[in-house]
């Protein structure tokens, strides 16, 4: 059975987001909360996982596992979104109101991934 087009859209978005972790590592390292050590390694790991899970979404036998893994990853990285919202340096100059709107976006992304579990 063919998967819906929006599954493939999600897969491409995660692959591109993961690649961006390697293109602009300093951007992502700034938003990693201070209680998380090894910022460079953490950034690369998250980028790698986003790419991996995005690729796995294309493979029918792994797409369910990939969707669950994306949900887990979104939960794990949520503290970075909170940190970015409450810390001026981590906000990267993005207005607070936009960062506050971004927080519920995580739940929308979780719901989107849940559609493929």
UniProtKB/TrEMBL annotation:
Segments traversing the membrane: 6-22, 42-59, 65-84, 96-114
UniProt KW keywords: Membrane, Transmembrane, Transmembrane helix
Coiled-coil regions listed: none
Domain of life: Bacteria
Name used for this protein in its record: DoxX family protein
């Amino acid at each position: 059975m063919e998967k819906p087009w929006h599954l493939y859209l999600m897969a491409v978005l995660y692959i591109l987001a993961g690649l961006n972790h390697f293109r602009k590592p300093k951007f992502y390292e700034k938003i990693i909360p201070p209680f998380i050590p090894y910022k460079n390694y953490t950034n690369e790991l998250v980028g790698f996982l986003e790419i991996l899970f995005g690729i796995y979404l294309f493979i029918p036998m792994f797409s369910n596992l990939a969707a669950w893994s994306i949900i887990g990853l979104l939960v794990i990285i949520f503290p970075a979104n909170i940190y970015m919202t409450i810390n001026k340096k981590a906000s990267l100059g993005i207005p607070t109101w936009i960062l506050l709107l971004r927080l519920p976006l995580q739940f929308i992304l979780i719901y989107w991934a849940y559609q493929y579990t």
